[in-house]
Design a protein that fits this description.
This protein is 67% helix and 4% strand. With 449 residues, it is mainly alpha-helical. It has three domains: 2-88, Winged helix-like DNA-binding domain superfamily/Winged helix DNA-binding domain (Arc Repressor Mutant, subunit A), CATH 1.10.10.10; 90-217, Serine Threonine Protein Phosphatase 5, Tetratricopeptide repeat, CATH 1.25.40; 260-447. The strands form two sheets. The protein has a three-stranded antiparallel beta sheet. Strands 3-5-4 form a three-stranded antiparallel beta sheet. The longest helix is centred in the middle third of the chain and has 21 residues, at 254-274.
């Protein structure tokens, strides 16, 4: 936050970051390319975007391009700071640090981000963006626990409390409603979540982050429209393509699904090398699942191996997709009767409910499977419980019951992504033909219309 004589200057956090970066160079020229690369990474923008940002900063601080007191233009090169350093209060420095840590999606930085936002909310208890930031930090901590059968719901509760505090303090803050919408959907309250996310986009229609959150909470054509709006404002934001790919899989339009997954996989490779903010993850796994469905077992295993290798980056969601890749590889090996390779893959995903199903197919035990299903139900993850139940029934040679279980899932679930993975899940590959004949694929596609 920028202040003048202890009074805050009305300037967005993004522009404060740009100003702070120029100031940090101690009077050196900061080139236009350097600014574009740092603040618009992977986005095809013109210099006009940067020029407008500098103009907005100058307007806020009462500066002029002709006779600058603070920001001097170096002709055709960039900008440098020529005034006394502006005052940036410590709580707001914590807020900026926390946000940058979250945007890195680096799991090792999550605890520091939480502490930064907790300090800001303690010192500025009525500053709504700090509470929204804290909600996002708790949310990402919760997301790290998702791949097991019993995620940490306490983190979800804490995140919800912080998000509601943000919307209470400032009902016009889009970020508060956006994170609240995401949290409500994650908590199994899609209608409330969608309403909150729509409010965020209504308040701040040009904020691509809000459209992404709306895409997460919606389904079918509404999700695809929200993804399009996200990508029109932030073309390089590959994670949005994961959400659209899910819809195409549910619809059975695998050519389009593979295209989106391939674009995402290319971006994931680039992000991993360039350390891009908000990096993509999970696309190698998703593409492998689609290739496996098309009979390209070797290509699928190669994708899974790439996802596992990419998981070493420390991405918040990295461990989840590494586990998913091990599980998928395990079922491919199992289909080839390679029990040694399957067992090794499932062991790498130890504790994952589907891995437990896979191991039960090898060792013939079912107690652990029943416990995993009970844990999923207790955590109110009903869709995942139904999928694992269907897998367990397949192992027990009860394919017709498995089909009925999946049909009940689609018939009883509210409109949304429940069951989207059914057409490409290797655990269900042996009953793909019965599923198609049962009309279940048609029902899944209709839900995604």
């Amino acid at each position: 936050m920028l202040t003048r004589e202890s009074e805050p200057v009305d300037l967005s956090p993004r522009l404060v970051e740009i100003l702070s970066f120029i100031v940090s160079k101690s009077g050196q020229i900061v080139t236009k390319d350097e600014l574009l690369e740092k603040f618009w990474p992977g986005v095809n923008v013109t210099e006009n975007t940067l020029t407008r940002a500098i103009a907005d900063i100058r307007k806020a601080i009462g500066d002029g391009a002709a006779e600058p007191q603070y920001l001097e233009t170096a002709s055709r090169r960039g900008y440098r700071f020529v005034g006394a350093e502006p005052s940036i209060s410590d709580p707001f420095q914590d807020w900026v640090k926390g946000r940058l840590a979250l945007d890195s999606l680096d799991a090792s930085k999550l605890n520091d981000a939480v502490k930064a936002f907790e300090r800001t909310t303690a010192e500025l208890p009525r500053y709504a963006p700090a509470h929204a930031g804290l909600a996002n930090a708790y949310l990402l901590q919760y997301e790290r626990t998702r791949f097991g059968s019993a995620p940490d719901r306490d983190l979800l509760v804490r995140a919800m409390k912080a998000a509601r505090e943000a919307t209470t303090l400032d009902p016009m803050l889009g970020e508060g409603w956006a994170v609240l919408g995401y949290l409500l959907c994650a908590a199994g309250k899609p209608e409330e979540g969608q309403a909150a996310a729509r409010r965020a986009t209504a308040l701040e229609p040009d904020n691509w982050r809000h459209h992404y959150r709306l895409a997460y909470g919606t389904w079918g054509e509404e999700r695809l429209r929200a993804v399009d709006r996200t990508l029109s404002s932030m073309p390089g934001f590959a994670p949005a393509r994961m959400l659209s790919c899910m819809v195409f899989v549910a619809r059975g339009t695998m050519d389009r699904a593979e295209r989106e997954a391939s674009i995402g996989a290319d971006a994931q490779r680039q992000h991993q090398d360039a350390h891009t903010p908000l990096p993509a993850v999970g696309f190698h796994w998703l593409r492998g699942m689609i290739l496996a469905t098309r009979g390209d077992r070797a290509g699928a295993l190669e994708c899974f191996a790439e996802e596992i290798d990419a998981g070493k980056s420390g991405h918040v969601y990295g461990r989840e997709f590494v586990v998913n890749a091990h599980v998928a590889a395990g079922f491919l090996h199992l289909a080839e009767n390679n029990t040694a390779a399957a067992s090794a893959s499932f062991a790498e995903a130890s504790g994952h409910p589907k891995a437990i199903v896979g191991m039960s197919a090898i060792d013939g035990t079912s107690t652990a499977v029943d416990q995993a299903i009970a844990d999923l139900m207790r955590s109110e993850r009903h869709a995942e419980a139904a999928l694992v139940t269907a897998g367990a029934l397949i192992v027990r040679k009860r394919s017709e019951d498995a089909v009925r279980t999946l049909d009940r899932l689609l018939s009883s679930s509210a409109t949304g992504p429940a069951g989207w993975i059914i057409p490409i899940d290797p655990m269900l590959a042996s009953i793909r033909e019965p599923l198609e004949k049962s009309g279940l694929f048609a029902k899944l596609a209709a839900r995604a219309a």
